[in-house]
Design brief:
The protein has 443 residues and is an alpha/beta fold. The chain folds into four domains: 94 residues, Rossmann fold, CATH 3.40.50.11060; 87 residues, no CATH class; 165 residues, 3-Layer(aba) Sandwich (Rossmann fold), CATH 3.40.50; 61 residues, Alpha-Beta Plaits (2-Layer Sandwich). Keywords: Cytoplasm, GTP-binding, Magnesium, Metal-binding, Nucleotide-binding. Pfam families: GTP-bdg_M, GTP-bdg_N, MMR_HSR1.
Amino acid sequence: MPEPKPIDLSAQPERALLVAVLLPQSKNDPMDPLGELRSLAKTAGVDVVDEIVAKRRRPHPGLYVGSGKAQQIGERAEANEAAVVIFDNDLTPAQIRDLEEIVERKVIDRSELILDIFAAHARTSESRLQVELAQLEYTYPRLRHMWSHLERIAGGASTAASAVGGVGTRGPGEKQIEIDRRLVQKRVSQLKREIAVIDRRKIRQVRSRAHIPGVCLVGYTNAGKSTLMNRLTGAGVFVADQLFATLDTRTRQWRLLDGETVLLSDTVGFVRDLPHHLVASFRATLEEAIHADLLLHVADASADRVADQIEAVHSVLAELGCDGGSQLLVLNKIDCIMDPTVRTVLAARYPEALFVSAAEGNGVEKLEAEVARRAGGESVRVTLVADCKSGKLMHFISQHGQIERQEFHDATAEIEAVFPARRLAELKAFAPDVTIVDGPYAV
């Protein structure tokens, strides 16, 4: 008698059919319109089994696609045993309902997929609160089409519904949708209060560090921001070749080549058509970017649509209100560029940009020098006589200055060093015998 086959109890990935409806103003890659949605689906743990691309001059008001295309989507989903249909467009609640009736499968849009990925990757209580708020604000206008029990009376509709309100909390004949809406509104209000507390705490933290220049990494998701942060600070933050690997802002000290210390922050990556609710919810997390002295806009130089990704980041920064500050474009992953003409074209289009490879370290010293110039301001060369017994003075010199020469005479040291000009007042408070020998402040 043959042995029975073992039962596979592991969770199987959900099979999905992807759909992109290309409109005249669509920003999809014409060579691979579903490339980004495919990556998002992969990050969400979905098994993509089929793809459909349709072109329209304008969305169909009822189905977004035409009725014939909707029927085709249903047939293809049936043939490929797809459990879900994912649109690379934002759909209205009515469009989702009507599409589900035709394709007889779950239908989700781009925003819901991104929210699902954020929910899966949220690790801290702060990011979980922010994701939950964004999900509820997305869900609220869709409640009428999300539940099959909406037309039933709450008195006997479901145990969960009956337990929610309790005696005296709802009127006779109140429908389940009214209970659901009230619960969502109550939870949204609570989340906003909790996030407002986090926001105020973040602002206090940022302001308490105002004496140290703040530099923030921003950019399209998977552009290599976390890899660059590890390269610059040795922070050891999580790195993965996937979208939205980082959701929580991390801040580390970064010691520049001139001896100056700045605070470097890594932030959540952006993406094309990032849901507005998500941007608003994550404002507290992005507080570092909003108040940074310098934004390092990291872009994947090897990406086929790098220009569109750069524009998408500019759009999100504008929505946050931090697009007017000092920015430095950092074109990363130059080690992945196989065609040398690509770099030539990018250099011509973005003459102020710096080319680096965070993975291999190419161009990092030039980046540090430029950050030191922009964040630290002008540098000056000074000579001073320091009391070696003054621990605070010697620590200040080693912390903020780049020592070029020092000679010891008993309990004193004659030091020649390069300091940021903005540190001169503090230096003179420690050591009155300071002579500036180079730079605009020379005497």
